[in-house]
Amino acid sequence: QQNRDNFPILTCLKDGYLIWHGFLTRLPRATRYTLGAKIDNLFTDIITNTLNGKYSKPEQKLVILKQASAQLDTLKYFTTMLWELKALDNKKYATLANKLSFVGQMIGGLLRDIQK
């Protein structure tokens, strides 16, 4: 069974969420309560699914992590939309996009390991 030390994806997700949360409070009001809220919910859903995957049986782990991967793709898309709406500046978007990309690589690696 995995522990916190060998499941760094949770640390990376938490770090990404903390970055996002700092941006959320500075979004324009109309965007904060629409797309911003959706992004916030996706972040917490991905963290929840990853935690569930961490403690699940191997046969369930694949399904749960695939769902987290799909949610991450949606999160990346909505984050890009937020940037295109100019609600996030280039620097903030790059910071968040890099973190999400790294999380995606980690989830992909876990999925490959499980499917072996």
Give the count of structural domains.
1
Q: Portion of residues in helices?
A: over 70%
Q: Any guess at the CATH architecture?
A: Up-down Bundle
Quick one: how many beta strands?
0
**Whole-Å distance between the termini?**
17 Å
Proportion in β-strands: under 5%
Question: Structural class given helices, strands, pairing?
Answer: mainly alpha
Radius of gyration: 15 Å
Poorly predicted ranges: none
Average of per-residue pLDDT values: 92
Q: What's the CATH H-level homologous superfamily? A: 23S rRNA-intervening sequence
Q: In CATH terms, what is the fold-level topology? A: de novo design (two linked rop proteins)
The general outline is elongated
Tally of separate helices: 5
Quaternary organization:
single chain
Largest sheet: none
Order of helices and strands: HHHHH
**Regarding CATH, which class?**
Mainly Alpha
Write up what this structure looks like.
The structure is a single chain. The chain has 116 residues and is an all-alpha fold. 82% of the residues lie in helices and 0% in strands. The chain is built from 5 helices and no strands. It has helices at 8-24, 29-32, 35-55, 58-84, 90-115. Helix 1 (8-24) packs antiparallel against helix 5 and helix 3 runs antiparallel to helix 4. The protein is elongated.
Attribute tags:
0% strand; de novo design (two linked rop proteins); mainly alpha
